[in-house]
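Please supply some protein, with fold tokens.
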Amino acid sequence: MSEDSVEVDFLCESEMWRGREPLLTKALASAAEAEGARGAVSVLLGDDAAIAALNKQFRGKDGPTNVLSFPAAHEGAMAEGLLGDIALAAETIALEAENQGKSFDNHAAHLIVHGFLHLLGYDHGDKAEAEAMEARERAILAGLGIDDPYA
């Protein structure tokens, strides 16, 4: 795996994320390599309040969500190497991990891969799209030694 396939810029706004940047960079690099993607990604490692504000502003939904993805908006951005932004909510991810019997790190790695695939155009709006996206997530995470997140 080559971690130079993706350039990651982290903004860490929650102590819960301290020291986790290498794990998340590795997950992003694995996803980029698996998809043949290269470029820059900005990642907000936020708390629930920050992600709730973004969720309200950009999706019109109240409350936090685990991950938000914002593909690069202008035409030609991918050609310029700009893939987009991902925002992760620490407390929501911690609660989901606990409820699902997973480690915080494995769940966060799954969600950053999920968010990255959204930047590349994957979606889960219907059953076929969801199955394709989940299959990619499973394959990428297996390469990192992370169990099937949907099992």
Notes: The longest strand covers residues 39-46.
